[in-house]
């Protein structure tokens, strides 16, 4: 069964999820990017660094955490349970090829939320059965941030919200231009990566997306 909704009220109220992805910024830019995303109004923030070493990622996480904490934004570590546990992040995120949700939860402890990436309706339903605290659902569109994945389109968004009671964050190619059609398709929560990190004015772009969400 899924965790009770009241376990993590901040996940329930969250609408906008940002990711500091080291594919789009340098380690030296991480603090400024974190501050801009938080000040713009992200509700959750993830650290995702596919090409850095564990010590490098941990160092970045430790630099981000005071900033996210000051803004009351939960920090979520992608992939690395041991870093989440060691820095005391508020969340951890696992993919289909990572640890199962139960193992992730055992590694980070009961007060830390565990999110899972899903790429189909079936995977979303399975993540709920696995008791994830939230899911990412996508990629909706083809995206350079996750280039090897086939986009799933918008057609299953309504159904996934009927079948899965967890907070569902639609992800993959989300930007301001596409947001209206994504919301019309039934999305309530989104993750934005490259559109934020590449925006000329990150804070303003975050604010713009945030103001369009329900
Ligand atoms: N998982 C599914 S799509 C994706 C991830 C991490 C990347 C989303 O990035 P962008 O740049 O917002 O398309
Ligand atoms: Mg992963």
From TrEMBL:
Q: Which SUPFAM superfamilies match?
A: Thiamin phosphate synthase (SSF51391)
Please provide one cellular component term from the Gene Ontology annotations of this protein.
cytoplasm
Binding sites annotated in the UniProt record for 4-amino-2-methyl-5-(diphosphooxymethyl)pyrimidine: 46-50, 78, 117, 146
Signal peptide stretch: none
Class in the EC hierarchy, top level: transferase
Q: Record-annotated residues binding 2-[(2R,5Z)-2-carboxy-4-methylthiazol-5(2H)-ylidene]ethyl phosphate?
A: 143-145, 173, 193-194
Span of domain Thiamine phosphate synthase/TenI: 16-195
Q: Name one GO biological process term.
A: thiamine biosynthetic process
This protein's source sits in the domain of life called: Bacteria
Cofactors needed by this protein, per the record, are: Mg(2+)
Cofactor binding note from Swiss-Prot or TrEMBL: Binds 1 Mg(2+) ion per subunit.
Give the metabolic or biological pathway: Cofactor biosynthesis; thiamine diphosphate biosynthesis; thiamine phosphate from 4-amino-2-methyl-5-diphosphomethylpyrimidine and 4-methyl-5-(2-phosphoethyl)-thiazole: step 1/1
EC numbers for this chain: 2.5.1.3
Identify the residues that bind Mg(2+): 79, 98
Q: Known InterPro entries for this protein?
A: Aldolase_TIM, ThiamineP_synth_sf, ThiamineP_synth_TenI, TMP_synthase
Q: What does this protein do?
A: Condenses 4-methyl-5-(beta-hydroxyethyl)thiazole monophosphate (THZ-P) and 2-methyl-4-amino-5-hydroxymethyl pyrimidine pyrophosphate (HMP-PP) to form thiamine monophosphate (TMP).
Query: So what family is this one in?
Result: Belongs to the thiamine-phosphate synthase family.
HAMAP family recorded for this chain?
TMP_synthase (MF_00097)
Could you tell me what this protein is called? Thiamine-phosphate synthase
């Amino acid at each position: 069964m899924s965790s009770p909704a009241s376990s993590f009220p901040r996940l329930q109220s969250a609408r906008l999820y940002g990711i500091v992805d080291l594919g789009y910024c340098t380690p030296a830019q991480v603090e400024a990017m974190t501050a801009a995303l938080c000040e713009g109004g992200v509700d959750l923030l993830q650290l995702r660094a596919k090409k850095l070493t564990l010590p490098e990622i941990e160092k970045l996480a430790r630099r981000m955490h005071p900033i996210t904490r000051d803004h009351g934004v939960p920090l979520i570590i992608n992939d690395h349970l041991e870093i989440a546990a060691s820095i005391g992040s508020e969340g951890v995120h696992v993919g289909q090829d990572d640890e199962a949700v139960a193992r992730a939860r055992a590694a980070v402890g009961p007060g830390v939320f565990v999110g899972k990436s899903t790429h189909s309706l079936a995977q979303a339903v399975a993540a709920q059965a696995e008791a994830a605290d939230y899911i990412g659902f996508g990629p909706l569109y083809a995206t350079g941030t996750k280039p090897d994945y086939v986009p799933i389109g918008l057609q299953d968004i309504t159904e996934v919200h009927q079948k899965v009671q967890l907070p569902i964050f639609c992800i993959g190619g989300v930007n301001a231009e596409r947001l209206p059609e994504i919301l019309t398709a039934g999305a309530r929560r989104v993750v934005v990566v490259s559109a934020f990190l590449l925006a000329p004015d990150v804070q303003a772009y975050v604010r713009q997306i945030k103001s369009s969400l329900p």
